[in-house]
Amino acid sequence: NAGVMQNPRHLVRRRGQEARLRCSPMKGHSHVYWYRQLPEEGLKFMVYLQKENIIDESGMPKERFSAEFPKEGPSILRIQQVVRGDSAAYFCASSPTADGLYGYTFGSGTRLTVV
Amino acid sequence: SQQGEEDPQALSIQEGENATMNCSYKTSINNLQWYRQNSGRGLVHLILIRSNEREKHSGRLRVTLDTSKKSSSLLITASRAADTASYFCAPAYTGSRLTFGEGTQLTVNP
C-alpha cells in the first residue's frame, strides 16, 4: 500500500515552459483532488476528478491550467507557459468515495519553481 | 463556505505543555476531521470524530465536538518539538468534498 504517489517531488521550469505534475492515487481510490499551496498559506482547491471525468474545476485558473485522470495511468495536472506566480507546492489527494466522509490521503507534493 | 475555521492562527508553546486548537464550522456535519501538515509535506489525517460523538482520543490527541456550538477542539498533551506543524480541521458533509481553512501553525519550543 504505497499511498498517494506524486512526481516529481521538485520541478524547475523556465518561464514559458510547460509543467506536468503526476499523481497516482491510493489503490482502490477513484477520486482525485488537486490543491495549490503558497508559502505560509493554506491549501487552495483547484480541481476534483474521477476516472475520465472532471467533476469540479471551480478552483482552477481558466487559462494555461488543465487536468485529467485517464482510465489508465496517473492523474496529470498540466500548466502551460508557466509564469513566476505559478511557483508553489501542488498537492494531490485521493479518497474512496465522492465525498470526504472517509477522509483524504495526501501525497507529498510537487514543488514547482519557475525561474 | 463549508470549510472550518481554525483558531488561533498561530500558537507557540514550550515542550511538555498542552496545545489546544479550535475549529468552528457553519452547518450540520456528518463528521469532522483533523489533519497535520509538517513543513513541506502533504497533510496527514490524524483523527475523525462523528457527529454523534462528543470526545475521541488517539494517543496524545484528544478531540472534542460540540454540535450545538458547531465547534471542535484538538488538544495535544505533553507536546514535543516534533509536534511543530500546521493543523487543519475539515468538516465533512454527505455528498460534498472536503475544504480546508488556513490552519493553526503550532510551534513547540524545546
Shape of chain A: globular
Helix-strand sequence of chain A: EEEEEEEEEEE
Strand content bin of chain B: over 45%
Biggest sheet of chain A: strands, sense, closure? Answer: 7 strands, mixed
Kindly estimate the percentage of residues of chain A that lie in beta strands according to DSSP: over 45%
Rg of chain B, please?
13 Å
Radius of gyration of chain A: 13 Å
Structural class of chain B: mainly beta
Structural class of chain A: mainly beta
Q: Give the biggest beta sheet of chain B.
A: 5 strands, antiparallel
Shape of chain B: globular
| Distance N to C terminus of chain A | 36 Å
Give the topology, please.
The complex is a heterodimer of chains A (115) and B (110).
Chain A: E1 5-7, E2 10-13, E3 19-24, E4 31-37, E5 43-50, E6 53-56, E7 65-68, E8 75-79, E9 88-95, E10 105-106, E11 110-114
Parallel strand pairs in A: 2-11
Antiparallel strand pairs in A: 1-3, 3-8, 4-5, 4-9, 5-6, 7-8, 9-10, 9-11
Chain B: E1 5-7, E2 10-14, E3 19-24, E4 31-37, E5 43-50, E6 55-58, E7 61-66, E8 71-76, E9 85-92, E10 104-109
Describe it.
The complex is a heterodimer of chains A (115) and B (110). Chain A is mainly beta. Chain A is built from no helices and 11 strands. Chain A has strands at 5-7, 10-13, 19-24, 31-37, 43-50, 53-56, 65-68, 75-79, 88-95, 105-106, 110-114. In chain A, strands 2, 4, 5, 6, 9, 10 and 11 form a 7-stranded mixed beta sheet that branches. In chain A, a hairpin with a 2-residue loop joins strand 5 (43-50) and strand 6 (53-56). Chain A is globular, with a radius of gyration of 13 Å. The mean pLDDT of chain A is 95. In chain B, 0% of the residues lie in helices and 54% in strands. The model of chain B has no long low-confidence stretch (mean pLDDT 95). Classes of the chains: A mainly beta (115), B mainly beta (110). At the A-B interface, strand 5, strand 9 and strand 10 of A face strand 5 and strand 9 of B.
